[in-house]
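Box S1 | Example of a co-folding query
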Amino acid sequence: MEIVEAKQTRRDFFKFSALSLGAVVATPSLIAGTAHPGMSVYGGYTKNRVGSLAQLKKTGELDFSYPDENALCKAVYVNNEVKAYSIICTHKGCPTVYNQEKAMFECPCHFTKYDAKNNGQMVIGQATGALPRVLLEIRGDDIFAMGVDGLIFGRINNNVG
Amino acid sequence: MALTLNDRLPIPPKNAEVKNVTCEFCIVGCGYKSYKWPLGKEGTYKDNALGIDLSQQQPTYGEWCSERMYNTITDRDGGKYNLMVIPDQACVVNVGQNSVRGGMMGVSTFNAASPTRDRLKDPQIFRGGMLMESSWEEATSIIAKVYKKIIDNDGADEISHKTFDHGGGGGGFENTWGTGKLFHAAIGTASASIHNRPAYNSEVHSSREMGVGELNSSYYDTSISDTMLVIGCNPYECQTNLFNLHMQANLDGSTLEAKKKEYDKGESVSKGKIIFVDPRRTASITNSIAIAGKENVLHLQIKPGQDITLMNALVSYIIEQGWEAKEFIKNHTENFDAMYKVNKVSLEYASALTNISVSDIKKAAEWIAKPKPSGHRPRNAIYYEKGIIWGIKNYENVASIVNLALLTHSVGRVGTGVCRAGGHQEGYTRPEYHGPSRQNLAVIDTDIIEGKYLVYSIWGTNPFGQSIATQRLRNAVSKRSQIVKDAINGYHGNDLDELCDIIYNACKSGGLFVVDVDIYPTQSSERAHIVLPAATTMEMNLTSMSGERRMRLSEKVMDAPGTAKPDCLIAADIANALKAEYLKSGNKVMAKRFEGFEWKNEEDSFKDGFAGQGSKMASQGGSTGTLATYKLLRDAGNNGVQLPIVKVENGKLIGTRLNYTDGKFGTKSGRATFLSTPQPAMPKQVAKQVKRYKYWVNTGRINEVWQSNYHTGRLEFTAKRWPMAPLEIHPSDAKELGITSGDIVQLNNDYGSTRAIAIVTDAVRKGEVFGAFGFQNSIINDLCTDYVDPDTKIPFYKGTAANIVKVGRSEGLIKDMTFLERA
Ligand code: SF4
Ligand code: FES
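Box S1 (continued) | Returned holo structure for FE2/S2 (inorganic) cluster
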């Protein structure tokens, strides 16, 4: 899979963060979830191209890593929307398996389940919340990852690792 | 600014204060470590209190603090701190794992800028038409003056109370001792009831009378059993780490080596099997199948109320096959023949009543009792919980299971046990309760509805959501409380004696003086005249024991909000205020009854009660509880000691993994007693509802919600996940009623009406719905009848019927819910 590195300066990032969600959506984009007021206090995310929208629509799911190669993520196409999540279960860190038919991320370790359509909300399980959402920007056919909302398992800061 | 940093957390520096915390939620009692350090200070990736390189992605199962394990807190001196509460890798109970509940201990702590902001902070008194701030002195002296007048004129039994008696969740030996000493010994009232039920009784009377204490095994023994039999109990959602660590390890074969080590020489060893008896398909069942395969999981989808018949059928078939533990029965039990004479049923008869096929009953019996290839008897870990305890007839329900355990020697043997799975942790140490026998106990909440008593003291519980016929109870207490409120409203002076005379007189004309002690405002505080704020877990030192009798000291980490106090010290304040009133009136004899509450802190209560009384009082520590000290417990850390304590060796507490290994049981003869357990008929109140209303209503817990939903109903994640009680309903019933998932539905019967959010699922059967209990804004117990088992006064919370209609839909309410299949 092709990952286009589009390095952003810290200033750029804050420019992005400062945009209202509406403004971002107004560029033809789809964003997983709502921005959190305190999101990215540390910034430091790079903007990465993670794949093609046409391809995702065809296959329904798309693997990528973000914000670094140790952070497994998946974009899914559900309800005519693109959503993307860190797939590492926020219970004890097992990689979840995506069940496309049910649009559900399922953890094989202790059976935590997350709803792909509904911002990674926990259906049942032992994590303490939803899967972290990857914030996306879509320009034409390009899907870009912009940041991660929610702490990735095994990190004290999403930008380590 | 807690809860706004959602892609990073501060790093605990090396000098962060580290404490042992036992999970405040379910009975499993998982170990946690708290890290506390000043706000604005941080360690570094390489140099930090966790002792790991935080610049790296941690591995699966590695140490991690989720956002909800974190909070910012403020101590009374104004100091602001970061707080992390993360599962302890070194604890043998949970080995670094959390459940959704325990994992939210951090975010559940008091933070004035978070959803926990409405914790009760200072005493309040009803004056001028509302609750207003008071002082501890004023509030406790009003209580003392009113109580004294009642004790002197009407007798102590006019003071009724409903007081928590559990460990965990702010409970523990310190607090049950304080409140127990106040009510049982000092005030001396027998009008008592317990946090989750309307009388003062055991949930497992029959097991105890059979000589078998209800927590006789260990999680380790469960993990090395051959067969786990789980009845009316959903451990994945309610005793999570018992399931995720110990049952799972048994099912997936991780404990085969341990089995080889622990079993007899030459005994067959294999992966564990599991049998569930439940009217629903629960997440525990689907997850067990995912772990062990269909061939090792048996779901006996029982018709509600027929558990006794099923147990009797298993007993009968096992005896017919000659698989019973003959030597054990002969040497260590009594009453076997009398039991069998009454309990004997045919499989065909049992199958017709229970709705379980003859072949499945046989299969279960084989898993439980058919000799293994080596000829050895299977080792069974038997668990039951609220599906049995809150069942059709508490006494026989529990006894029928213990019969099966005795028949198959599933107690006092490695890899066996017959235990309640449990709700809360335990923490009972109280002076003996001098009430009548179990058949004659007062059903306090029914009495209150009928106009009895002058006082209703509610302590650490909300009976208005969690008793029988709760809508009637709410209405009755509202009316009776209002009589006192009106009287108080008519008085504008500040002479406390005058005020208390007015309160007393209002009580004598149909009123009810309501005192509420709690950590949050509830439907109880709405009806109260005095509200006192209590401290909870992490705000005081607390000792409790778990479902395997593991006792720990859960340490104080932070100050309680406002002037909130440990419950034991609140009890002491009330006792001391009463003593002062009696001394003032020159009654030295009565003043003496209120002596012995000169406690400065919770440890004083511990020393007086658990560690001071030994077998002189009713204590889960037994006679060797006197060996326990805070120091020894602190040193024992999160692994603590399994009660009873055997001895102290080189500064270490040595405990007991399994009870009854010597074959001596808790009866006069030392033999465990079989009991006759005939299947009872449906109680007439319940039968009437079934006749008049279409849907059988079962109720229970759900994973993400803890008990009365006091924290979880507030916290952002859980409050959005479950904004109201969910009601599981079968697709064909839903279709008939025009209901889809997410609709608000109304349920009603002769006892009340309530609302819930429909979840359409075939986890329940047609004609049977399942509603979650504990929600303060949608109370399923409003439909519960006023029936209690005449032999134990324990309710049948899980048995009622109702009609259901669709009300409509509120998309805003369900925005963050998900309706995907949970099981
Ligand atoms: S399983 Fe029970 S004790 Fe353990 S973390 Fe969860 S709620 Fe707490
Ligand atoms: S690691 Fe996913 S459920 Fe435990």
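The pocket of FE2/S2 (inorganic) cluster (ligand 2) is lined by residues A 89, 91-94, 107, 109-112, 125-126 (CB under 6 Å). The longest strand of chain A covers residues 142-149.
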